[in-house]
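Hi team, as promised in this morning's meeting, here are the two structures we talked about. I've kept the exact order from the run log so nobody has to guess. The first one is mostly here for context; it's the second one we should focus on when we meet again. Sequence first, then the predicted structure tokens.
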Amino acid sequence: MATTTATIDVPVSADRVWQLVGGFGSLPDWLPYIPASELSEGGRVRSLTNEEGGVIVERLEAFDEQARTYSYSILQAPFPVTGYRSTLTVHEVSGAQSRVEWSGTFTPAGASEGEAASLFHDIYTKGLAALKTTLGA
């Protein structure tokens, strides 16, 4: 099993960051390479469309509003992994500073552990940079 984690510090309150990222269907609000997200099954499954028109289907596995975190698994995606589970968390550093952490665990399938970890680390890093830009930070 492989893992990767990316973090970014933003000069914005954790509550403000969570307002933007905390909705399971909110990826298009801050992640430019995911222009569409459709929720189903009472908001527990999201079907994402990427810039190339590819579809990624994910299931919400855990959600904690107070701790500002949620975890999800991939049901369908064009990625060379199985058993994917990811967590997005917003940590309060101070009143006007927060740290966002995006991590994942997965089993490579058709790629080396390093290639799979690099793929997701790149997705997380670029996604967090886009979040910082969206927040105007």
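And here is the second protein, the one for discussion:
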Amino acid sequence: MDYVKGIFLNRPNRFIAEVEVEGALEIAHVPNTGRCKELLVEGVTVWLKPSDNPKRKTKFSLHFVENKGVLVSLYSQQANSIVYDAIIDGKIKELAGYDYHQREKTVDNSRIDIYLANREDDCCGMNFLVDSCYVEVKGVTLVIDGEARFPDAPTERGAKHLNELIKLKKDGNRCCVFFLIQHPAGNSFRPNWDNDPIFSKTLNEAYGEGVEILVYKCDNQLDGISLIPESLDFNLGKSLSNGIVND
């Protein structure tokens, strides 16, 4: 995939960015609804994917931003594909062993990112699914002192997904929330209590109810993004200047 190098100038709203490409002002789509204010600062280098679709309002999509000497992926929806492909390839040991894989499983009024199960035949030769596992994926780009934090802005939708996982877990299913760190400088995870205490509290409640938390990160290169097959640590407590409080 060929990318075009640019300089970030401004983000008039969460959907678009003004960038400079070869001395000209261009408008690029931002495929990430988070604030990303620690990353998208005036003058930083960004990498854009051009589009040849004449019906698009923007000529480019902003895929990467350089930060602390590394490439950070801003394509949040791509996190789902990265995790799904890694499951299929057996790179996530905690989610290995399933022979049925489905993306975007509808549950009540929500869609869970990934559904896993095993096929089993009954006495009549009919095929059905057992060992259901629901996986919700969250892409993480905010990193503070080597610690990845989510979300970087309040997310009612994120808390809704956690509550859905809690319900599914109480119904007897296996449930996981998967945090994919899309910033290579992140080496552990913590919920962002400062930006979204409701999500952070709900994550703690979900973990207490038996919803599993998995944390991995990806290797970002201009010629491709892949998941690093090593799980990372997480801490669900609040981060304070004088230490950690585990509420």
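Starting points for discussion:
The first helix runs from residue 78 to 88.
The radius of gyration is 19 Å.
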